User: Fold Alpha/beta hydrolase from Pseudonocardia humida.
Amino acid sequence: MSTDPLDRPHVWLPGPGPTPLLLLHGTGGDEHDLLPLREHLAPDAPVLSVRGTVLENGMPRFFRRLREGVFDEDDLRARVDELAAFLAAAEARYGVAAGTWAAVGFSNGANIASALLFGHSDSLTAAVLLAAMVPYRDGPPPADLGGRRVLVSNGRRDPMATLDQTTTLVGQLRDRGAEVTELPHDGGHGIDARLLPRMAEWLRTIART
Assistant:
């Protein structure tokens, strides 16, 4: 087994933009799935898109789950540490300033993005969480998220990332000092394309601060 933390499938796209994007796919996706979002959210941004290293019935994920909606939290913590090490190595390899990433995660990718915030808050400056659930059933580890900005965009009809899940997650982030913007939509477990311009504007505010 390789000891190189960068030895996992990923795509790096350089760009002149000030805020590099970290793209994190949903269950069954890969490092190519969310690349089209770059054109909608920040066309000039450097982009690092990463594939999850866990397989569930052949489908890539970022961490194991015991069943739908119930996460293997020990594995989640280990995978968060692994992702943080990967980001540090990517910063060195690709010339990215430490901790300047804005994560953009969908579903399973959103869940590990929020867990990364709670577990390694210095790895990210911001996060866009799409169809996000609560990563830790009994509450996340202590974290100081002061200065971190998070956008949560969940569907009001999402059977997985329910209203209760959304409310709990937003509360946990705010309790730890994050500045949270909620951008709900009327759909289910997906991304509402009509909200992408507003997400893009939100990301531009990150670059200006």
Observations:
- The mean pLDDT is 95.
- The helical segments are 37-41, 73-94, 108-119, 163-175, 196-208.
- The chain has one domain: 10-208.
